Model the fold of this input.
Amino acid sequence: MSVSRRQFVEALALGGGMLASTATRQERASGTLAGAGASISAESVSATQAVDATASHIGNLYEFVQKQADRSQLELSFLHSQFASLQQWQPGARAKVFEHLFYAPSPVAPQAELVRRTDRGDYVEEYLTFRTTPDLRIPVCVLIPKQARFPAPGILALHSHDGMYLWGKEKIVENDHEHPVLTAFKQRRYGGKSIAAELARQGYVVAVIDMLYWGERRMLLAGDPPAYRERPMTLTEAEIGAFDQRASQNESLLGRSLLTAGVTWPGVLLWDDIRALDYLASRPEVDARRLGCVGLSVGGYRSFLLAALDERIRVAVDVGWMTSFASQVKQHVIHSIGLSFHIIGLYRYLDLPDLAALIAPRAVLVINGSQDRLFELNGVKAAFAKVARCYAKAGVPESQKCSLYDAPHEFNLEMQSEAWRWIKRWL
Done:
């Protein structure tokens, strides 16, 4: 992101606060800034002032940090010669990922409570709450197609980060009286589609939850105005931007607070997704043997991780979140790596594409855009190659596909068409 001197001075005047509002204005103007994982801080502003466009954002500290990444032997990568059997390798590698989540909530019955049912023509939407842990009851939308043979396949659809915190699941479901800002967002990121509804129309039972800190689970403070609590249609774009700016400023605070409590945000995030899958699989309309997941941006990351951690997923689609972590260090951490989902210390054992071997022999489709500024392009290509090598070694090369589009950070209509074909093939 290019930041002017005036914007930098304004940031300093705000006490070094994060520039989410600047990012949001630019994103809404151009549709090119994804804001997929990390808040935009005063540090990132300083970094973008570098005269040399090839210089690292962390300046003279880069060499040390990069050497740490380069020294990693990725000791649990399935591609090492000592790992011959996928079945013998997977339990230990999967356990290592779970270990680094530093969070293992006690099992709990979902105790689902129906709030309302809405007839949306081709499908019925149920809005419910259910328990994911003894401490959490969260909202979920379940979309049930009218024209389907039951039990039908089920899909967990996962929303994005995008620096837009006011809404979560609303980004991918159809909404009564949808706010124009949200409609414009869907046009930029999803070609104007509500992808959960699109999947329901194709005969899938679809569940959508809010990530912690988004949508109905957003952070609210005691003195907040009613508009922040009620999200009325009268909210102005400036007011939405102000809320998102504050949320961006405090995202790292929640991450640090969770670390202080001895747990990690990605642990909460991924266990919520696993428990949402539990609930989806328990529905009488759903064939628990045919489950899939799909998402854009951090939703794509969640889809990839969920498939790696839960063998009930038969097909996963990860859109807009694939890279080799070492390639991000020089200039791409600022907008892509955040406490809300990055698994601490895992790179010692496994790179992100190594997790593909935890999905194999089940199916995965990875889609990225070559114009996506969140990721170093060579790192994306290297990750694609590693995914292919993992599946080849597993003996199922046909069960993976990695597609690179000449596109920015989005899940456009052409990508959606490929994704829906892939899901249909395997479910």
Notes: Residues 237-260 form the longest helix (24 residues).
